[in-house]
């Protein structure tokens, strides 16, 4: 099983051809690699058996299953890890209590992220993050809630660059009245 | 730091009938002998012969030689050899050769044995309308890959039993007198191998080696040490008409292309078909010792006219560093784990990368083959 990481590569002008061939099962991470997607396929997996895991990270263009031509006897999976983030929130009582942040699909309410905002975002504010396997743009709704603050909700789109939402975070003037 | 080539196959420094490899004349050339200052360096004698006739009649004449004693054979069917030579004429009124289309200057490569074997392939290398015969140009280099099949004439040649060669001209009365005369000087003949492990493959070797070593070897440091024109230099641009290797896996070698441009010729250029090259002719190999002290650094521009493969497949303690070179026009490119760095691969064959090599930061563009890059092996 091979394990390779390729960084900062570009593949361009391969009309009617395929940019990259993977011949052996294993895990291949592409860190900030760019395909101009000018060809028939961006990747061909020609391995005879086993699994090829294609990990796309750090700005690598958002390849989806349709960009991969599986010609061997094995299988492949794309892990296109993008980051979902809700930031700009705070309970005021971290690290004891954190704001709950939530992202779900508009289409069927599938939860993509349900995390506490436990990472510092600077300035006394916090953020919640989650890795998400990008398989195409999707519409989502975003929520952040904590007692004493007005619920924050908005919508957005997860793209190949991920999603980052800065909450409009306000004290609830009616709390404890 | 040197550019190592094997010993000359034939010095051609005696009259042709005294040359131990002489086979026969082809249609009786005249004025055979030796010429002072006819070779390279100019201090060396060359063999000479004349294709001279009155009036407008054109004749084909030449001289044939065997490559090896006893007409021993070469089998070039697996790995080819390169015939590296130069054509030199006398003054302009002695370069009365016919046109390229009619084979003004020709080479034949023979297989089989005999006083002059009958199975050959014939190349039309130039004429009065190409650089080889259009002026008093001195030594005009040419390279014939013994396995090349772009010959214009001949039949029966087999590449498993190569024995002999002949140099010929087909004259033309171009004026300047009643006769049509071309006076030919035969310079030293070199035969190069094209494999990675052969000591007869041209080799960059030693500490501090760079592309300029090849120019110094062939062009010399002055007229007393110049031996040919098949490596040429114009500023930071180098023209190398043969394949080569970097290192011999035995001699401590550090190589740096110093950011220059290296250009390898195309084959059978219709306007100047002096070079006849298969994709084996101009192969490039890295063949360093398995030693961290052996290094090869690249930052220049490598422009290849044939799809010869590049073998950078070294995978051991030797260090091969790519600092942004550009490679274009060559064939398949093998990258071993000794390679680290970034390059631009533009219109090259398949780049195959070892799983522990690093080409981070590289750009792959315009594939010649089916893919830009293959990984996983």
What does this structure look like?
The complex is a heterodimer of chains A (177) and B (377). Chain A is mainly β. In chain A, 0% of the residues lie in helices and 54% in strands. In chain A, the strands form four sheets. In chain A, strands 1, 4, 7, 9, 12, 13 and 16 form a seven-stranded mixed sheet that branches. Chain A has a four-stranded antiparallel sheet with strand order 11-10-14-15, with no helix packed on it. In chain A, strands 3-6-8 form a three-stranded parallel sheet, with no helix packed on it. Chain B is mainly β and 377 residues long. Helix content of chain B is 2%, strand content 40%. In chain B, the strands form four sheets. In chain B, strands 15, 16, 18, 19, 21, 22, 24, 26 and 28 form a nine-stranded mixed sheet that branches. An eight-stranded mixed sheet of chain B has the order 1-14-17-20-23-25-27-29. A six-stranded antiparallel sheet of chain B has the order 2-5-11-7-8-10, with no helix packed on it. In chain B, a hairpin with a 7-residue loop joins strand 7 and strand 8. The longest helix of chain B is centred in the middle third of the chain and has 8 residues. The two termini of chain B are 35 Å apart. The model of chain B has no long low-confidence stretch (mean pLDDT 93). The chains are: A mainly beta (177), B mainly beta (377). The interface between A and B is medium-sized, with 24 and 19 residues. Strand 2 of chain A pairs parallel with strand 28 of chain B.
């Amino acid at each position: 099983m091979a394990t390779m990481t390729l960084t900062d590569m570009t593949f361009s002008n391969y009309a009617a051809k395929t940019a990259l061939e993977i011949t052996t099962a294993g895990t291949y991470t592409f860190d900030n690699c760019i395909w101009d997607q000018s060809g028939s396929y961006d990747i061909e997996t020609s391995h005879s058996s086993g699994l090829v895991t294609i990990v796309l990270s750090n700005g690598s263009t958002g390849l989806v299953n349709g960009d991969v031509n599986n010609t061997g006897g094995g299988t492949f999976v794309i892990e296109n890890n993008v980051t979902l983030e809700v930031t700009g929130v705070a309970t005021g009582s971290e690290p004891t209590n954190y704001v709950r942040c939530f992202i779900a699909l508009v289409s069927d309410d599938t939860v993509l992220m349900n995390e506490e905002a436990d990472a510092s975002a600077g300035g006394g504010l916090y953020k919640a993050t989650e890795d998400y396997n990008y398989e195409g743009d999707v519409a989502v709704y975003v929520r952040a809630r904590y007692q004493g603050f007005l619920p924050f909700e908005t919508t957005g789109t997860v793209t190949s660059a991920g999603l980052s939402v800065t909450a409009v975070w306000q004290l609830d003037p009616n709390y404890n009245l | 730091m040197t550019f190592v080539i094997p010993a000359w196959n034939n010095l051609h420094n005696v009259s042709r009938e005294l040359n131990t490899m002489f086979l026969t004349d082809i249609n009786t050339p005249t004025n055979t002998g030796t010429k002072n200052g006819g070779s390279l360096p100019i201090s060396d004698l060359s063999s000479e012969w004349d294709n001279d006739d009155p009036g407008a009649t054109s004749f084909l004449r030449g001289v044939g030689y065997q490559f090896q004693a006893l007409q021993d054979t070469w089998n070039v069917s697996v790995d080819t050899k390169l015939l590296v030579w130069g054509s030199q004429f006398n003054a302009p009124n002695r370069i009365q050769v016919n046109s390229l289309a009619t084979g003004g200057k020709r080479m034949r490569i023979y297989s089989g044995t005999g006083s002059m074997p009958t199975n050959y392939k014939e190349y039309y290398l130039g004429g009065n309308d190409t650089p080889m015969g259009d002026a008093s140009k001195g030594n005009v280099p040419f390279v014939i890959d013994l396995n090349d099949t772009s010959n214009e004439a001949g039949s029966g040649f087999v590449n498993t039993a190569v024995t002999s060669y002949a140099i010929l001209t087909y004259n033309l009365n171009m004026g300047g007198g009643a006769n049509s005369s071309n006076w030919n000087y035969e310079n030293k003949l070199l035969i190069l191998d094209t494999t990675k492990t052969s000591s007869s493959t041209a080799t960059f070797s030693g500490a501090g080696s760079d592309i300029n070593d090849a120019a110094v070897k062939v062009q010399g440091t002055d007229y007393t040490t110049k031996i040919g024109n098949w490596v040429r230099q114009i500023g930071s641009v180098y023209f190398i008409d043969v394949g080569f290797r970097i290192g011999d896996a035995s001699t401590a070698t550090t190589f740096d292309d110093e950011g220059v441009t290296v250009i390898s010729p195309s084959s059978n250029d219709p306007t100047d078909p002096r070079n006849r090259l298969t994709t084996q002719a101009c192969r490039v190999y890295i063949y360093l010792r398995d030693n961290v002290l052996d290094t090869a650094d690249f930052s220049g521009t490598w422009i290849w006219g044939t799809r010869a493969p590049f073998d950078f497949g070294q995978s051991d303690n030797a260090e091969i560093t790519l600092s942004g070179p550009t490679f274009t026009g060559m064939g398949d490119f093998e990258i071993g784990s000794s390679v680290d760095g970034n390059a631009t691969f533009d219109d090259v064959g398949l780049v195959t990368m070892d799983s522990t090599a690093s080409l981070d930061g590289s750009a792959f563009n315009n594939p010649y083959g089916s893919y830009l890059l293959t990984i996983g092996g």
